[in-house]
Specification:
Protein name: Phosphatidylglycerophosphatase A
Structural class: mainly alpha
Low-confidence stretches: none
InterPro entries: PgpA (IPR026037), PgpA-like_sf (IPR036681), YutG/PgpA (IPR007686)
GO molecular function: phosphatidylglycerophosphatase activity
Organism: Dethiosulfovibrio salsuginis
Number of helices: 7
Shape: globular
Order of helices and strands: HHHHHHH
Number of domains: 1
Keywords: Membrane, Transmembrane, Transmembrane helix
Length: about 160
């Protein structure tokens, strides 16, 4: 790859080195890999740093929606995990992943609105919005059925 070959670099980043092109369900595959790969390191701080790094990179790489782009799914599932999944509370990883994929696929409001933003920003924003919706819904479920509420300590 030459210095001027930024198109190839963007595609490599957007597709996670081609991983987004190997499956008939690349979004689900990559979301699951991102979710479970993060588990040994999972803390709110780690997730926030990872999101802060992958979001702008994804906006840049997904401009023009390269075929097989999946970096948006990585960022979105990590948003869904914030405050729910830590190395000592791994049991909520699957519900975080499941809810993220549901809202990422059906795209309810506000996910559908976020996806209308231009270029790579819209591609990344709709999955971040799906992650936020999944996160909030999971807190609601935890509150209703487990009596758990978000606290300052749960998000550090």
């Amino acid at each position: 790859m030459t210095v001027g070959d930024r198109g190839g670099l963007k595609i490599s980043v957007a597709t996670l080195m081609g991983l987004g092109k190997v499956s008939s369900m690349p979004g689900t595959l990559v979301s699951a890999v991102a979710c479970f790969a993060m588990l040994p390191f999972c803390s709110t701080l780690t997730l926030v740093v990872a999101i802060a790094l992958t979001f702008p990179l994804g906006v840049w790489a997904c401009d023009g929606k390269p075929d097989g782009a999946v970096i948006d799914h990585v960022t979105g599932v990590w948003v869904a995990m914030i405050g729910h999944v830590t190395p000592i509370s791994l049991g909520l990883a699957v519900p975080s992943l499941f809810l993220f994929r549901v809202f990422g696929l059906i795209k309810p409001f506000p996910v559908s609105i976020a996806g209308k933003l231009p270029g790579g920003l819209g591609i990344m924003a709709d999955d971040v919005a799906a992650g936020i919706v999944a996160n909030v819904i999971l807190w609601g479920i935890r509150w209703m059925f487990m009596g758990q509420t978000p606290s300052f300590m749960s998000v550090i």
